[in-house]
Amino acid sequence: MAKKYIGIDIGSTASKVCVLEEGCEPVFEVLPTGWNSKITAGIIKEDLEKRYGGIEEDSQIVATGYGRISVEYADHVITEISCHGRGGYEMIGRDCTIIDIGGQDTKYINVVGGRPVDFLMNDKCAAGTGKFIEVMANRLGLTIEELFELAEIGNPISISSLCTVFAESEVINYMGEGRSREDLAAGVIDSVALKVATLVQRKELQDTVIITGGFSNNEFFAGLLSKKLNKTAIAMPLGRYAGAYGAALLAKEKSNK
Amino acid sequence: MAEFLHYYVLFQNHTDATAMYRTLKSSGIYAQISPTPRELSVCCGVSLLIHGEDVEKIREISAEKGLNYLSIDGLNNTFDNTRHRYG
Amino acid sequence: MADNQKMWADLGMNLEMHDMLCAVLPGAIGDVFMSQENRPEAMDYFDMVLADVHGLRPAELVEFRKNGGKVFGTFCAYVPDEVIVAAGAIATGLCAGSQFWVPGGERYLPANTCPLIKAMLGARFDKTCPFYRLADVYIGENTCDGKKKAYEILGTDVPMHIMDLPQMKREKDYLKWADEIKDLKALVEKETGTEVTAEKLAEAIKLINAKRAALERLYKLRRNENVPISGTDTLLISQIAYYDDPARFTAMVNKLCDELDKRVADGVSVAAGKKRILISGTPMAIPNWKLHNLVETSGGVVVCEETCTGTRYFENQVDESGATVDEMIQNIANRYMSINCACFTPNTARADDVIRLAKESKADGVIDVNLMFCQTYDIEGRSLEERCKAEGIPFLGLETDYTDNDAQQLKTRIGAFIEMLG
């Protein structure tokens, strides 16, 4: 059996797995992280063993993401910056700026020569992250998918609070005023795009900007962000797997060294 | 004596601790200056971290040279550089 | 040690509350310092000072004051110890480095004040730092708005003297700083009843120059390819510099350097294969070891600190050629004005320092660390980043406070930065 290179990205919200095998297309899996990343790591291991038999002998595993240290069976632990940088670069096939919108944080990664050369992460605040969208969707009684759908047909109401908790109060006030869900949904998504654009404005953007993370396949969001950045941000259909894919690629590089 | 991860010599004052430290060092016995672990004494200050296998030897040397100390105690504490708790 | 408890009670400290600090420090010291491998033997002196940080040196100060000596509490690398020492007095640093003191400070200051300033007031008014209780006069300096206003609150039952530090570096500013040092001299003379003569001042200049030279020697040893001492250990030494007897401290640093000389000759490294990091930014008062611990457990080794607990404290010497007291004071002023703090404008010389130090210490990258709400250093972060990038030096800007809760977030950033250097 050919050697497998496995990337495991334990994010705050979702955990992603990528398996690379010689001569095969990469295989991607996603599951919710749940409350305990050790348990999640265990589920992933069982699942891999079920699918491939033993994974100890003929595989090289790299763990990444905020729960990376919970993957006790990993051969290497690498930060999500390096993994997203590597995975995003491979997906687009050229040097690029990656904007990753994760469950808890938003990252800017600049990749030159296939390697991250600069990065930035939002500090201690959920504004401009998946968590913000999740909280607001819950408040509006929508799923995240529905929120995006409604946002497309609404006129954005400006949400000015920087803090997710205060922004939620702001949305509640607007709801009290009887504003439409479409307009509120549009306001929420617009605010995320604005916060992401504000975060990265101090940094250099290359000609190619790609979006990874949970909403990376959403063309509407990509269009909105492009407007704010004044530069085309490309939606990546498999963008949420960029970290796991990068981890798997780095696993391969490590074992070839 | 039960097996502990670490052994500490406790003192009344820092003069006694210094005297013991110098003697142990000049006798080629391992000793490291350490804050007194909370679990062993509520009085802060200097203690000496020693190796468990040296405990008897240290007692003998102290008796021989008239070195003062309060007690030698074991403790199952760990030094974990990834705990990231700074007080 | 029972002696400490009695001393702290005599000093009017809040024993119950101070006890909470005593309860957590040994664990933190174990994790940060004692977990390190292959430490130099001569760290034992500094371990001793640290193990009994609120006992050993305070006991000496108690004794000194019993015999009529005066103690001056200081907060900043700009305050010239030379003048205080020349009057036979002692200068000591004051506590400001732990989250333990921050809630106490927030009773007096807005929450969005830098943690160092909040800790300063908390340690003072919670009565949990013996040094505040042992100072006869506090010497402040207006190096930032936060400190400036905090000093108004700080000086209640202990006299507070503020040195008005110029914030530009024109010729008249050097003269003005000399004037301020003359005022400090007058104050010290009045408090001690001892005249600062040319002879005594010359001696004091030599003493403090020797202390700076010892630290410089230590920092030069870190430049070796085989790093002979960890950044964490060196930071501790820089922190203790503010508190210890200068002559003894100098002797102990030199003794350590003798050992490090041997290590260098033998090719001993405490950081084989690790990435060399220069840390720039705001001061790290004892027991703030967070960044060093994070860097040195994430594949890095700190080889230089361009901070007030680093090169800003010891670089450049006082010219010893002055003959009169006035000449000496101007020479002292010139040396202290050569420190490049973000409270000055313009302050491009600080970026020059960082670039020079990064090259001298062969740093693989620069991590610029700002204490939260330190506006001047925060603003300089951007121009510093541009300068470093122009020189091809990888740069990471971080902001943090004294709490533990961002440790994992910082670890991800530091880990990613170090991976990037690999």
Low-pLDDT stretches of chain A are none
Mean model confidence by pLDDT of chain B: 92
Q: CATH first level of one domain in chain A: which class?
A: Alpha Beta
Structural class based on helices, strands and sheet pairing of chain B: alpha+beta
Number of DSSP-assigned strands of chain B: 4
Radius of gyration of chain A, taken over Cα atoms and rounded to an integer in Å? 19 Å
- Main-sheet strand order of chain B equals 2-3-1-4
Main sheet attributes: strand count, strand direction, barrel closure of chain B: 4 strands, antiparallel
- Tally of extended strands of chain A? 10
Instruction: State the order of secondary-structure elements of chain B, H for helix, E for strand.
Output: EHEEHE
User: What integer is the average pLDDT of chain A?
Assistant: 93
Structural class of chain A: alpha/beta
Q: With helices defined by DSSP (H or I, 4 residues minimum), what is the helix count of chain B?
A: 2
Question: What report would you give on this structure?
Answer:
The complex is a heterotrimer of chains A (257), B (87) and C (422). Chain A has 257 residues and is α/β, with parallel strands linked by helices. Chain A has a domain at 4-82 and 242-256: 2-Layer Sandwich (Nucleotidyltransferase, domain 5), CATH 3.30.420. Helices cover 42% and strands 22% of the residues of chain A. Chain A is globular, with a radius of gyration of 19 Å. Chain C is an alpha/beta fold and 422 residues long. Chain C has a 4-stranded parallel sheet with strand order 2-1-3-4, with helices on both faces. Chain C starts with a helix and ends with a helix. Chains in contact: A-C, B-C. Chains B and C meet through helix 1, strand 2 and strand 3 of B and helix 1, helix 2, helix 3, helix 14 and helix 19 of C.
